[in-house]
Specification:
Elements lengths: L20 H15 L13 H4 L41 E9 L9 E7 L24 E6 L3 E7 L4 E3 L2 E3 L2 E8 L2 E10 L9 H4 L3 H4 L3 E7 L5 E8 L15
Parallel strand pairs: 1-10, 8-9
Antiparallel strand pairs: 1-4, 2-3, 2-7, 5-6, 7-8, 9-10
């Protein structure tokens, strides 16, 4: 086989020069040959044994679904301060919502994944439909998410304002969406003791009176920073089960 003529003269190869050039070249060839476990004379004829070895298996990787980066943020259970590096705070009355997830036997249900969704202090949800609304708080997105590894959670947020849904006035509330072993998705809402609108909220009125109390978080004092504390138990099944709903659009 003849080399294709390109019409250009071959570029001359650079050769070692200067005192000791030949010995340096021999040393370089020898060290390179050792790297590939070959003699310098056979480097052009053989390939490395490692190149012929089978490739190691790659690490396992999650197939998905993948969630936005904010879900990995350690501050996602703090909706008052969007991020620890910011001095800005969400407007409104700060509250702490503490809760427990209980199983059929009254024990803590560990590993529940819970998502929180609420309106801001002015009663507006942050959605594409409300973008640009003057009452949207730029420092409050209304969404939090955590895995209750020990069956407990604590959400720092602001008291949501009353909202209007399908033409009906709603009392201040937070929507909770739960995922757990054997539970694909269940939804409920948490209300707050003593808040205006509880007596007329259409969802609460749709329940028998004894069941309404299961959705109302009780007031449990005030922290040193002024945040009011509320407590609630979410009973997943059995006696005193929390009312759950197929879905809620808030």
């Amino acid at each position: 086989m003849h080399r294709r003529q390109s019409g250009k003269p071959d570029r001359p190869r650079l050769k070692p020069h200067g005192p000791g050039a030949d010995s340096r070249a021999e040393g370089l060839a020898e060290s390179t040959g050792k790297r590939f476990n070959q003699s310098p004379s056979s480097m052009g004829e053989c390939v490395s044994e490692s190149q012929n070895a089978p490739l190691p298996a790659t690490n396992e990787d999650t197939c998905g679904p993948y969630f936005p980066i904010p879900f990995c943020d350690g501050d996602r259970m703090d909706l008052v301060q969007p991020h620890f590096a910011l001095v800005n705070r969400a407007g409104g009355r700060p509250i702490i919502l503490r809760g427990r997830f209980l199983d059929l036997y009254g024990d803590l249900a560990a590993g529940v994944l819970v998502e929180f969704w609420q309106a801001n202090a002015a009663g507006l949800y942050r959605t594409p439909a409300t973008a640009g609304h003057p009452d949207i708080d730029p420092w409050f997105d209304g969404y939090a998410r955590c895995r209750a590894s020990d069956g407990r959670f604590e959400l720092r947020t602001v008291m949501p304002g009353g909202t209007v849904s399908q033409g009906m006035a709603r009392a201040p509330h937070i929507t909770l969406t739960l995922f757990s072993d054997g539970i694909a998705r269940i939804v409920t809402q948490v209300f707050f003791a003593g808040e205006a609108g509880n007596d007329t909220d259409p969802l609460l009125l749709s329940l028998p009176e004894p069941m309404r109390e299961r959705l109302i978080a009780r007031h449990d004092g005030r922290r040193g920073d002024g945040a009011e504390v509320y407590q609630i138990d979410i009973v997943m099944a059995g006696e005193g089960e929390t009312p759950f709903f197929d879905d809620l659009s808030s």
